[in-house]
Every structure is written in C-alpha cells, then in structure tokens.
Amino acid sequence: MNSLLMIEHLSKTFTLYNLDQQIEAAADVSLHVNEGEFIGITGKSGSGKSTVLRCIYRTYLPQKGTIRYQSAAYGEIDLASAPDRVMIDLRKREIGYVSQFLNVMPRTTARELVTQALLEMGTDPHQAARETERMLDHFELDSKLRDSYPATFSGGEKLRLNIARAMVKRPRLLLLDEPTASLDHASKVKVKTLIEQLMQEGTTMLGIFHDLEFMEGLCSRQYHMQDGRFHEGGRPEAAGRFLRDQKV
C-alpha cells in the first residue's frame, strides 16, 4: 500500500506566559498512514490527541518534525512548512476536518454552509444543490432549519451539520476529532454509515473517539496517546482498559 501521510518526530509545545511554563502536548510523534486506512486514536483528555490532528490541518504550527502528505494537486508536500495559500487550497479540496464545535461565518444558513463546501471544489451549482439536500436528508436535519442560522441550533444539530459539511466533499484525508461526542445513537449510526461509505471510496481517516464501541470494526490500526506520544494498541477492549485506568 502507498503511504498518504508520514509524520516524523512531530513535537508541539505551548507556552503559558502568565505562569511562565511550557506544556509539551506532542513529543516526538511518528506515524505512517497508508491510503484508505482508518487510524483510531484514544487517550485521556489533555494527552495531545487533538494537537496532532490540528498540526496536520495546520491550525497549530509544530516546533519540530515533518508531516509529509501525498497531495493530488501538489505531489509530496510538508504540511508543517507549506505556504498558507497551499494549506487553504488543500483544506478546500483534499483535507477535511470535523471537530465537536461548529465555527462558521454569521448569517450563513445551514444549507449555504454545505453548498459552499461543494462549490469550493468546483462542483456544478445544480449538482451541489442536490448533494446538499441528500446529505442534510441523511442526517435528518429538519427542513425548517435548513435556511436558518446555525447559531440557533442545538449542540447535536450543530455537530451533525459540521459532519455533513466535511463529508459531502469526499476528501482524500479526513480528520475526525470526537465527531460523535454529543450525538444520540441514531445519529452515530448515520455517521458510521457515511464513514464506511467514504472508506469504500478510498478516503483515508484519522479519528479520535471516546466511544470505543463506535470504533469497533472500523479501524485498520489503533493507538492510544500518553505523555504526548503514540502507543500502538491492540483490540478495542485493550484501549478501553487503558482509558478506564486513566479515569477519563
């Protein structure tokens, strides 16, 4: 299999100026991800899981290490040092990110958010409109809400919209940071169905989950993060015992 993402010796430190302290969130992290794999990541809160994903997406800039990504548009590129304009383009066309939180421009409706994601990729407006409705139907977002502003939505509705906006693009690389945190069981099943569909279509994914039952049967490999480092895990039960020991 071909490697899509190669993280080598990634380190990220945050400075707490008011306390004159430095916090090492990621310490010498290395990980190779093959095309089409789904890598599952567990670990207690504050262990550095989200930091790694945000470095890949370049929300955070690491102090050390490389993040080599095999881009369809640019060939091999180091996401840790790529120009900002390249990262913006990759986020539009190749790399998706789903977090627990929905940060959007005010006065943009739910329907517009999903449609804009497709238009950024050059999708025909009529096709974009059809795909938008199909995705919002899948996540059962009430038709009365689709022309409303997400600021008025519940936490679960915002999260379903956030997932819809990222997944409708069919990205080459999808980063999932607790995507089912505030969803009910039925909504989790819908997320899992789309993940399975994207996997069949070749999307490569890295996902952070506390819901270990959700991960079961999806992941190619599992890691838990402790002290800023990845430790390869085995079965979901083993990761579960680790989390219980950490009293998450």
UniProtKB/TrEMBL annotation:
Its main location: membrane. The keyword ATP-binding applies. Residues 5-248 form the ABC transporter domain. Its EC number is 2.7.8.37. It is a peripheral membrane protein. It holds the Pfam family ABC_tran. Keywords: ATP-binding, Cell membrane, Membrane, Nucleotide-binding, Transferase, Transport. SUPFAM superfamilies: P-loop containing nucleoside triphosphate hydrolases. Gene3D superfamilies: P-loop containing nucleotide triphosphate hydrolases. The keyword Oxidoreductase does not apply. It comes from the Bacteria. It is found in: Cell membrane. GO terms for molecular function: alpha-D-ribose 1-methylphosphonate 5-triphosphate synthase activity. It is an enzyme of class 2 (transferase). Belongs to the ABC transporter superfamily. This is Alpha-D-ribose 1-methylphosphonate 5-triphosphate synthase subunit PhnL. It comes from Paenibacillus favisporus.
